[in-house]
């Protein structure tokens, strides 16, 4: 889970320190960073601007629609759709913490971001990412109770429990982000100030530090275990129990119907955790700047767009709610 391009960045920092020492100058604190993004070619940037604008609009429309349907149709006012609504709300802000600034940088020559804005972006992105890890675990628990303990589902997954699970997810993500941000602010950033990324992701920002970031790397690793790996393994255990229960159903149609209620969540978990684990839990020697950008782009921008599509395309409840609400509006 080590920092992309760390060796190259370390050499640049050492060269900068040596030059400053030889010249007898004091190192100046960085007040802004330059986000290098994907390309400096103007035509490519215009194409990328259009692509990501479309992705962003689909993300906003899709997730907003899920939230509105869950609020307006009483058939969707269940624990499962309560968590899906939370996920949609989270995804709107998750992608909004990155894409607007990225779109701006496609159109301007100087792709700068102030130090304070960078740290704010880092904090928001980490907070929402950690929240999603816990929220997906809460959703897996909901499916476990629905399938493995159907007779007790209403009593176990009551409104109070759902709210507590969602609140704990948001609280856990916030604490995780606060820890990383506080540790990042303890470092000194004195140049170079060019971040080879499209936003202020924590490993990329730490690569800009002039002081030793070993403690920060250790904190990232430990938090990744608590926020990413433990929820992921709990989700795996939950689905092992779910699959075991499904296999005991004698009817093939019954098995398919029950499994279909989990298929969307399994897909979302696979997409999100797959890229997160690839990004943060692989050896430092296997990192490359291009791979890190693509992995981050997928779980931060593409996945929030895909989530509402995954939960609605093959979901009869969502389609039914859309038809009922649309029909109601037409009659009015």
Can you characterise this structure?
The protein is mainly α and 332 residues long. The chain has 12 helices and 3 strands, in the order αβαααβαααβααααα. Strands 2-1-3 form a 3-stranded mixed beta sheet. α2 (42-72) packs antiparallel against α4 (99-107). Residues 1-6 and 16-26 have low confidence and may be disordered.
Please render the helix and strand layout as text:
Elements: H1 6-22, E1 32-35, H2 42-72, H3 79-96, H4 99-107, E2 112-114, H5 115-148, H6 153-156, H7 159-185, E3 194-195, H8 202-206, H9 214-247, H10 252-280, H11 289-313, H12 316-331
Parallel strand pairs: 1-3
Antiparallel strand pairs: 1-2
Helix pairs in contact: 2-3, 2-4, 2-11, 2-12, 3-5, 3-11, 5-7, 5-9, 5-10, 7-9, 9-10, 10-11
Task: Indicate the mean pLDDT.
Answer: 84
Write out the strand line-up for the largest beta sheet, numbering strands in chain order.
Answer: 2-1-3
Number of helices: 12
Radius of gyration: 22 Å
User: What string, H for helix and E for strand, traces the elements in order?
Assistant: HEHHHEHHHEHHHHH
Low-pLDDT residue spans: 1-6, 16-26
- What does the main sheet amount to? 3 strands, mixed
* β-strand amount: under 5%
Count the strands? 3
* Protein structure class: mainly alpha
The termini sit apart by: 55 Å
Query: Which percent bin holds the helix content?
Result: over 70%
- Principal-axis shape equals globular
């Amino acid at each position: 889970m080590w920092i992309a391009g760390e060796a190259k960045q370390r050499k640049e920092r050492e060269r900068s320190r040596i030059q400053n020492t030889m010249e007898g100058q004091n190192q100046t604190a960085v007040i802004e960073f330059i986000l290098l993004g994907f390309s400096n070619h103007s035509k490519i940037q215009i194409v990328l601007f259009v692509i990501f604008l479309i992705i962003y609009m689909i993300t906003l429309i899709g997730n907003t629609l899920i939230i509105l349907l869950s609020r307006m149709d009483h058939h969707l006012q269940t624990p499962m759709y309560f968590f899906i609504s939370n996920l949609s709300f989270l995804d709107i802000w998750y992608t909004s913490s990155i894409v607007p600034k990225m779109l701006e940088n496609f159109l301007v020559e100087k792709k700068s971001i102030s130090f304070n804005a960078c740290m704010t972006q880092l904090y928001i992105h980490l907070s929402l990412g950690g929240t999603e890890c816990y929220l997906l675990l809460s959703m897996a628990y909901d499916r476990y109770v629905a399938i493995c303990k159907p007779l007790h589902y209403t009593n176990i997954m009551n409104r109070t429990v759902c709210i507590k699970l969602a609140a704990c997810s948001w609280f856990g993500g916030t604490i995780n982000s606060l820890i990383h941000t506080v540790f990042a602010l303890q470092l000194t950033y004195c140049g170079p100030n060019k971040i080879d990324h499209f936003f202020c992701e924590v490993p990329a920002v730490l690569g800009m530090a002039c002081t030793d970031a070993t403690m920060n790397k250790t904190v990232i690793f430990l938090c990744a275990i608590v926020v990413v790996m433990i929820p992921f393994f709990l989700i795996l255990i939950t689905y092992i129990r779910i699959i075991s229960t499904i296999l005991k159903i004698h009817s093939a149609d019954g098995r398919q119907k029950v499994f279909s209620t989990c298929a969307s969540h399994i897909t979302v978990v696979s997409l999100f955790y797959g890229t997160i684990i690839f990004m943060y839990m692989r050896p430092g020697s296997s990192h490359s700047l291009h791979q890190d950008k693509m992995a981050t782009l997928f779980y931060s921008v593409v996945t929030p767009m895909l989530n509402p599509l995954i939960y609605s395309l093959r979901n009869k409840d969502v389609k039914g709610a859309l038809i009922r609400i649309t029909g109601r509006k037409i009659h009015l």
